[in-house]
Amino acid sequence: KERLHDLLRPLAGDLSEVVEEAQAGATAVAVGLKHTYTGDTIVGHEDLVARGLGNATMEGVHVPPPVFALSITPVEATDDELEEALSILVRDDPSLVVGVDPDTEEPILRGMGELHLEVAIHRLQHDLGIEVATGRAHVAYRETIIQSEGEATMTSLNFDKTIGGKRLAAGLCGTLLSLDTESEDDDGSERWMMQTPEVVILPQVADELTADQLEALRDATEAALNQGQSFPRIGCMLTISEVMQEGPDVTTPGALRAAAAAFVAKAANQYQTSVLEPIMKVEVNLISEDHVGAVLSDLSSNRRAQIRSVSQDTSGRPRLVCEAPLVMLLGYASAVRSITKGHGSFSMEYSHHAIDTADSQ
């Protein structure tokens, strides 16, 4: 629940006035909200209770997965101050994601593109007063396994080691499957979405494990399945159909964790691995026809773009829609301004992942 302190109607400049209500379509500022994020819908709880909908929830705004990452380091601020400022950014913009680089332990800010992160860093430094140094930008590559039809086979592994004088043993059987791709492009190439790998432990297997064993097996399998050879893995499902035990003192949660990691590696190594790159849907808007040819030539020749349409907006101005690898769009804001002599703009959003045929990572 939220308690609203004031409702303000913004006026010119920094002025505002307190109002009792806001009609549909009006712009208002709600003061005092502590748990509300961008995209949330606020409703009167008493109204819902009266209608028998006291526990109702509404679907939030769809937030596409981040495809661009930037490491950040505070110049003078403490880690706690940086963490608090980043939490404010994420609260205002749910498409931003904060994480930690597993190798350097530096904070990582992920977003929808180069310009998106530039705006976020500007807000961090100028609005929130946290000066940061930024590292090299990273594109969100992924990888997946490639299977021919009917190629999936059962994998089995027996783990048996003595560690610190104590014997640990566990056996696992299961099948790793490549999930169906969403669709195919006009040229026949497949599309992958940012689909987290799935782990399925059959009910009869889960029933034979203690709660601690089941948790250890699931957590370790999910962690190993998510971590590919070079990039996070997507688009696959692992079904565990059998667990062989030798008693609680031997088949411990630790034994199952170790067995799960080795089992996933063995299952994945049976198949070809492909690197996937993020593909963006790009819309370029021009003022006149003068620069259409130059923009199309640059997109096709220099940015590996697939042109989807060339049309006009409601004002009769040219609009170009294409799909291009994100890595080829780095610096495109400056390029499109240069090509069109400042008379063009563009926007882009995540479309899908596709096999990286250029080894650009």
TrEMBL record:
Keywords for the protein's UniProt record, in alphabetical order: GTP-binding, Nucleotide-binding, Protein biosynthesis
Coiled-coil zones: none
GO cellular component: mitochondrion
Domain Elongation factor EFG: 274-361
Molecular function per GO: GTP binding; GTPase activity
GO annotation, biological process: mitochondrial translation; ribosome disassembly
Source domain of life: Eukaryota
Transmembrane spans: none
Keyword Nucleotide-binding: yes
Name of the protein in question: Elongation factor EFG domain-containing protein
